[in-house]
Amino acid sequence: MPELPEVETTCRGIEPYLLNKTIKSIIVRHRGLRWPIPKNLEKELAGQRIKQIARRGKYILITVKTGTLIVHLGMSGSLRRVKCSEQAEKHDHFEIVLGQHCIRYRDPRRFGAVLFTIDDPLQHKLLKDLGPEPLDKTFNGQYLFERSRNRKVSIKQFIMDSKIVVGVGNIYASESLFYAGINPNRAAGQINLERYQQLAKSIKKVLRAAIKQGGTSLKDFIKTDGQPGYFKQKLAVYGREGEPCIQCGKPLKHLVQGQRASYYCSHCQK
Hints:
Layout: H1 4-18, E1 25-28, H2 41-45, E2 52-56, E3 59-64, E4 67-72, E5 78-83, E6 92-97, E7 101-106, E8 113-117, H3 141-148, H4 155-159, H5 170-180, H6 193-213, E9 253-257, E10 260-264
Antiparallel strand pairs: 1-6, 2-3, 3-4, 4-8, 5-7, 6-7, 9-10
Helix pairs in contact: 1-6, 3-6, 5-6
């Protein structure tokens, strides 16, 4: 699933081609995504100038004068800039036509979304309860410490909760906990402030590195230029069960938490 770095990479990739551009037309080939694409979207957006491209959590917000397009990439979605003359494929469901080029939305599993709101998008039911952005100054160890008191849930599941903080997906949670030296199975409420301060710094470090490298190279993730991300080459623990820890050399371990795979070093992570 595309996570925050992949979505941020997508936003940065499409912004130069969309910002201040006028939408010539909208093409909808299949409305049946996770939620149906609005029936009047073609009429609503045609002729509109794009005023802003932003991200909130894993949602991409494309703002025009009359409202905001809310796009979610789902499990396997992508937005790519292509020539309009390029033949659309089976899973190309939606596109924003700008002239000779368009931004084309592809989603093989149809678990993503393309929605529209005339109201404040941050108050939309999908966004209004989201936690802080992990790269904002408001997100820090003190915040995590206060939200974690009396919580018995594992620390990994805690930081993956989008109501606590957005965008810390499975891979990035494992990586962040490794650099913070925290075992993923520890109860969130049993971790002290000092460790949370280190964890907040690690989350920021890992996500910034992922964004810089272009997202994680998962098999389904495609950047806006059609190429995969590159961050997977630099993962410290995720997917490396049995391989030596980069810090101590001992074999890395694996466990399943909430139906998600966790990778860690039992020696370095306490």
